[in-house]
Design goal:
38% helix, five-stranded mixed beta sheet, Transcription Regulator spoIIAA, 100 residues, alpha/beta
């Protein structure tokens, strides 16, 4: 279960583990609950996540798109060096808001 911190219209969600296929179903439910609140900013804090597979990338992209639809933004914070390299290799860094 992810840690969720609400501060005004900003919500920070910290899964605390790798974003891989085995954890994604529960994480998607948590994200759905948060997105239903229509936050202005959703911070995905990747502290404790060293790896991300294609399913995890899909969740990040879908969350980014959902936030754009409601007029908000997704900020990916504290991504590991490996995850940042992955985003850069896929050119996702040009679309996502990365915050170290």
């Amino acid at each position: 279960m992810s840690a969720i911190l609400r501060e005004g219209r900003t919500v920070t969600i910290t899964p605390g583990q790798d974003l891989v296929s085995t954890m994604v179903p529960g994480f998607k439910q948590e994200l759905g609950t948060v997105l239903a609140e229509s936050p202005a900013e959703l911070r995905l804090d990747l502290t404790g996540a060293a790896l991300m597979d294609s399913i995890g990338i899909g969740v990040v992209i879908a969350t980014h798109n959902s936030m754009r639809k409601i007029g908000g933004k997704l900020v990916v914070a504290n991504a590991s060096e490996n995850i940042v390299k992955l985003f850069k290799s896929m050119r996702l860094d040009q679309h996502l808001n990365l915050d170290s």
